[in-house]
Automatic annotation (TrEMBL):
UniProt enzyme class: ligase
EC number per UniProt: 6.1.1.17
One of the GO BP terms on file: glutamyl-tRNA aminoacylation
Ranges for domain Aminoacyl-tRNA synthetase class I anticodon-binding: 328-459
InterPro entries for the chain: aa-tRNA-synth_I_cd-bd, aa-tRNA-synth_I_codon-bd_sub2, aa-tRNA-synth_I_CS, aa_tRNA-synth_I_cd-bd_sf, Glu-tRNA-ligase_bac/mito, Glu/Gln-tRNA-synth, Glu/Gln-tRNA-synth_Ib_cat-dom, GluQ/Sye
GO MF annotations in UniProt: ATP binding; glutamate-tRNA ligase activity; tRNA binding; zinc ion binding
Spans annotated as Disordered: 112-134
Protein name (database record): Glutamate--tRNA ligase
Short sequence motif 'HIGH' region: positions: 9-19
Entry GO terms, CC: cytosol
Subunit details: Monomer.
Keywords: Aminoacyl-tRNA synthetase, ATP-binding, Cytoplasm, Ligase, Nucleotide-binding, Protein biosynthesis
Function description: Catalyzes the attachment of glutamate to tRNA(Glu) in a two-step reaction: glutamate is first activated by ATP to form Glu-AMP and then transferred to the acceptor end of tRNA(Glu).
Amino acid sequence: MTVRTRFAPSPTGYLHIGGARTALFNYLFARHHGGQYLLRIEDTDRARSTPEAVRQILESLDWLGLNPDEEPVMQTSREARHAEVARQLLAEGKAYQAYDTAEELVAMRERAQAEGRPPRYDGSWRDRDPSEAPAGVKPVIRIKAPREGETVVNDLVQGEVRVQNSELDDMIILRSDGTPTYLHAVVVDDHDMAITHVIRGDDHLTNTFRQIMVYDAMGWERPAFAHIPLIHGADGAKLSKRHGAVGALEFRDQGFLPEAVCNYLLRLGWGHGDEEFVPRDRAIELFDLKDVGRAASRMDYAKLSHLNGQYIRAAAPDALLPPVLARLGEVSGEQRARVAALIPDLQPRARTLAEMADGARFALAERPLKYEPKAAEALDHPDVRARLARLSAALSGMDWTRAGLDAALRAFAEAEGVKLGQVAQPLRAALTASLQSPPIDAVLAALGKDESLARIGDAAEGVSLVGG
Ligand code: GLU
C-alpha cells in the first residue's frame, strides 16, 4: 500500500499556523513512508470561500516548502461526483429522500429540546413511501445511519474512540439544490484520491463518525485516522491574534525562516528524545504519528525566535542575502555588495531576518548620516573628532583588508595611548550612525575604503552634528 495523505484547508481565510502544522505532519508522514502528500482546497462553502484565500494558502505552503505532489484538487470541481455517489446510495436503499419542510425541522428540534434530547433528525422519512411526498418540496438525500451497535475508531493519535450508533442521525448528504454537504464531499474525495491516512485537527474527531457512515454504506475501506491536538496560546486558550502572529505569512513577514517555523511546529506536539534542532531531512527520517502527543500544545514565540536564530546561524550566507535584501527595498550593485559582505557578521546575533536587515541598514545610508542621539553625543567632542581626523589619515594609505584594518586600528589606539574601544566606539558612530553594529573591521570592510573615509571625514568635521 502506498501511503497517501492530504491537507484539506477551507479557503475562508489565511492559512493559520495550526493548519500549517497539519500540512507539515501530512507531508512528513507521507515522505517518511515514501508515499504522496496531496492538497485539496475545500471550497464548497461558496459564500465564505474566496480566491484570495486560495492564493494565500498556496503561497503559504510554497513558502513553507510544503507543495503537494500532485495538482491541487478543488472540491467544487467534483460536485457532480459527490451527487453521483449520493444517488447511488439512494438507489441501493442506503439513503433516502426526505421531504421535511423548514418548519417541520424547526418543530422537530424544539420537541427534542423540550424532551431534553439532542437535536437529531428523527428519521421521519426513512421508511415513508416517496409517494407520500408533498407537492412542491424538493427533497434532500439523507444517509441511513446505523441504529444499533457502536462505531469504533482506532485513531493513530487519540487511541481507541467509540461512539454509540444511536447517537448518530441520518445526516443530509445531498441538499435539495443538488449540492453535496461538506461531510459527504470529504469522504467521496478522500476515497477517490486514494487517501490512506487522514491526518487533521482534533476538532474534526466527531465528524469522523459521521463520515464513516458514508465509507461503510459505499463498502469503501476506511482510511486510518489521526487527529492531532490544536495549538493554544501561552494562556491555554485557543491560539488567536491577541497571542501574536497566527497566519503563516505573518511569520514570514516578521523575518522567520520557513525551515525554523516548520521545525518549531514539528516540535510542538511531536518529539524525538530531546532533539530540538530537527531540519527537514531528519524530520522525514524520524517522523511517525505514534510520537505525536494527545495534549494541546502551547505556542511559545520566544522559543520560536531562539530556534530561528539557530537556523540563521546554520544558514549559508548566500542563502540569507536575498531575503535580507528583500527587506531593504531597492539597492544599487554597490549597496548589495556591502550587505553581502556584512551577512556573516550579522548572523551570530540576529534572531530574525528583520533584525539582520536592521543591522545592515547603515550600509545603505546616504551621507551625511543622521546620527542616533547616542552616536551624536559620542562624536560631540572636539578631541574625539580630532582623533577621527588622525585616524582617517592613518587609514588612507592602507590596503583595505579586514585583517589589515584590524591591525591598523590596534596600532592606532596604541600610538594614541588609548584603549581600542576609545577608537572603535566613535568610529562606529561615524560609520554606522549608531553605537551598535557588527565588528568594526567588518563594517569598514563592507563599506569599502572611499565610503568609510568619507563617513569618517564627515564625523571629524562635525557634519550633521551642527544644525542643518
Ligand atoms: N476543510 C477542513 C478544515 O479546513 C479540514 C477537513 C479535513 O481535513 O477533513 O478544517
